[in-house]
Specification:
Blueprint (H helix, E strand, L loop, with lengths): L7 E4 L4 H10 L4 E3 L17 H13 L6 E10 L5 E2 L12 H11 L7 E12 L2 E13 L15 E3 L11 H4 L4 H16 L1
Parallel strand pairs: 1-2, 1-3
Antiparallel strand pairs: 3-4, 3-5, 5-6, 6-7
C-alpha cells in the first residue's frame, strides 16, 4: 500500500491544458510536468495507435528521470470517417489550431446523418521498469456547430451521451467526473495507491 503520495510522479506532457486537467484529477499526488524536470525536447509520436504513442512518450521521458513517469495519448474517434481523426486529432487540419481541426471535422461530416463519436485516452505508466496501461473512453455525438467556451480541442462539438451540454459548456469539475481522461486516470490512481 502506498504510504507517501508526495513522492513525485512525472506527467510526460508539454500541453498546459492536459497538465491542469491531470493535476485536478490527481490532487493527492505530487505531479511534475516536463518543464519541472527540464525536459524540453519534442517527442515524435510515430505510433500507429493511442497505446503506441503513449508508450513512446513515456519511454522518452523515463530515461531522463528517476521518478515514475506516465504519458497519455488521447483523441477523438468518428467511426463513419474511417475512425478519423484518431491519433491525428491534434494535427488533423495540419495547422495545430483547434478551430481549424473542428472546421475540417464538421465539413467532413456535412452530409452524414451518423455523427456517433467517442473520445479515447490510453495512459502508459512506467513504474520500476515495468509498463502498465490504462484506457478510458466516453461515447457521444458530434454537434453541428461548436457550443461553449470551456475545455479545449474538440470539446465544443462533442456532446457526451446522456448529457445536454457539450464538453465545452461544462465546468472542469463536471467534465472531470466522467471524461475519457478521467476514466483512465482513475484506473491508474487506484493502481498507484495499491503499488507505489
Amino acid at each position: 500500500m502506498m504510504e507517501n503520495t508526495n513522492s513525485p510522479i512525472v506527467f510526460a506532457s508539454h500541453n498546459e491544458n492536459k497538465v491542469t486537467e491531470i493535476k485536478n484529477l490527481l490532487t493527492h499526488f505530487h505531479i511534475l510536468d516536463l518543464n519541472d524536470i527540464g525536459f524540453h525536447e519534442e517527442i515524435e509520436e510515430t505510433g500507429q495507435s493511442f497505446k503506441e504513442n503513449a508508450e513512446i512518450k513515456a519511454d522518452a521521458v523515463a530515461g531522463n528521470t528517476q521518478f515514475p513517469v506516465f504519458a497519455d495519448d488521447s483523441g477523438l474517434v468518428v467511426p463513419i470517417l474511417n475512425f478519423e481523426p484518431g491519433i491525428f486529432s491534434f494535427r488533423y487540419a495540419g495547422t495545430g489550431k483547434s478551430e481549424d481541426n473542428i472546421e475540417k471535422l464538421l465539413k467532413n461530416l456535412e452530409n452524414s446523418e451518423n455523427r456517433d463519436a467517442y473520445f479515447m485516452t490510453v495512459i502508459c505508466l512506467v513504474l520500476n521498469n515495468q509498463k502498465y496501461f490504462f484506457e478510458g473512453r466516453v461515447m457521444g455525438k458530434i454537434l453541428p456547430n461548436p457550443i461553449g467556451n470551456a475545455g479545449f480541442g474538440y470539446d465544443p462539438v462533442f456532446l457526451p451521451d446522456g448529457y445536454h451540454l457539450s464538453f465545452a459548456q461544462m465546468s472542469p469539475e463536471e467534465k472531470n467526473q466522467f471524461s475519457h481522461r478521467a476514466v483512465a486516470v482513475n484506473k491508474m490512481r487506484k493502481f498507484l495507491l495499491e503499488h507505489l
